[in-house]
Amino acid sequence: MTIFESALHAWKPYVFSVILVIIHTLVQASIALRVIMSRRSVGASLAWITIVFMLPIAGPCIYLLIGELRLGSRRARLVRQLAEPMQLRYKPLEDPRYSARWGEIGEDWEQLSVAGQRMLQVPTLSGNRLELIESWEQVFDRMIVDIESATINCDMEFYIWQCGGRADELASALERALLRGVACRILVDALGSRAFLRSEQADRLKKAGAQIQAALPGGLWRLPFIRFDLRLHRKIVLIDDQIAWTGSLNMVDPRYFHKSAGVGQWVDAMVRMEGPSVEALAITFQSDWYVESEHDLASLPDLTGDQRISKKGECAVQVLPSGPANRVEAIERVLITAIYAAREELVLTTPYFVPSEALQMALSSAAQRGVKVILVLPKKVDSQLVQLASGAFKGELLDAGVHVVHFHRGLLHTKSVTIDRKTSLFGSLNMDARSFQLNFEITLVIYDQTFTKELRQLQQSYIDQSEMMDASSWHRRPITHRFAENIARLWSPLL
């Protein structure tokens, strides 16, 4: 046997392993090249490249599962088909009667409105009446009364629907409405409302005539084609397309929801709306319903018919639906534009705070140019990774002059922004990459001083139940804790 043959014989058992290593390296390099060429944010790109190369086999698998924004060919096709019918539904809202009077509201806010409309195609509509409801008990009381008064339709869209407590009372009100001949449609996230979809309550509602549709269903066979962690995070209630509700409260009784998480009772707020902007929310629901259901998409039939869109007040509101079916960076750009519009005061409340570099810079810059910036966060959240990642950003904000306060009376779940006590943002949007890019969200931009002052009072009540972070104490925390936060920060673009 020659030396060459001996060497070949000795290496023969390792040939298969070498081939696998070469294939794995090529896969890693291909994914890295794809990430680079996709022109994501620098943070997200570096995070993915780190994961792919630091986690052999697991890294590429994770990327193939959640690294790409895959809506699925069917959903993407239906979204494209919706473009023309949606434009037709929005056409009546272009009536000059509903135009905002920017001379009275302010030209700076008109620029914010223009940015929102150009990126998310929804105009600002005047003539609305808004009520801020900060008590979850009152939300259920008023919502049940609205359902009892319904004569045509009750449409509901939620991320989580959990049976028990006041949610059962509302379901009973829906059953009574169905017996009166009211059409009821319920659209819920397939993962967030999985237990409800399998419940006796859902069966009773279906038997009474309700249509219940799961949004974004999962399944192993879907994994190669649809990103499984896209979620429907909107909260919308429509009564006869004349009354609408939206905000942060899921269809749950906070007394029983997520008690095992150890974060206390969830604290939420909702807005009850009347006026032209209800139609914008109705269009959002109709679009979501027909994308998720098997109905004909040639048109968007309106259960309430061609009833007149009437003005109910003086409030100007822009309804901004966002999500992976839109320009994924649009809603974050609107938020950042709003932050840069602040001149005196900026107050933000959010349960999950894992900002992008652009959002972190906008908040720091606002504080450094003399704007009083107050960021209100819950002391504890139900995700340890998010808690750590959030902590990694707080020191920089404190150093820039941002007032960071920790709410300690439960998990503060209200998502709100007030700017100079004149304009506000309110809805389902968290301040993290998931809400900006992966979740289907709904945000109201409210150009009204009266409503914004009420919302600012609610924010102040949260602040009064919070403790102010001290920068010097924060910087003295154990090095092990700082290390854990900085590791979590590397994942922040993907959370």
Sum up the structure in keywords.
alpha/beta; 495 residues; 19 helices; Endonuclease, Chain A; 16-stranded mixed sheet; 3 domains; two-stranded parallel ribbon; single chain
Q: Secondary-structure blueprint of this entry?
A:
Elements (H helix, E strand, L loop, with lengths): L2 H9 L3 H23 L4 H13 L3 H9 L6 H18 L11 H4 L1 H14 L3 E10 L2 H14 L3 E6 L7 H14 L3 E7 L4 H4 L2 H9 L2 E5 L15 E2 L3 E4 L3 E5 L18 E2 L2 E5 L2 H16 L22 E8 L7 H12 L3 E5 L3 E2 L2 H12 L3 E7 L5 H17 L2 E5 L3 E2 L2 E5 L3 E5 L3 E2 H6 E9 L1 H16 L1 E3 L2 H5 L3 H13 L4
Parallel strand pairs: 2-3, 3-4, 5-19, 8-15, 11-13, 12-18, 13-14
Antiparallel strand pairs: 1-9, 1-10, 2-6, 6-7, 7-9, 10-19, 11-16, 14-20, 16-17, 17-19
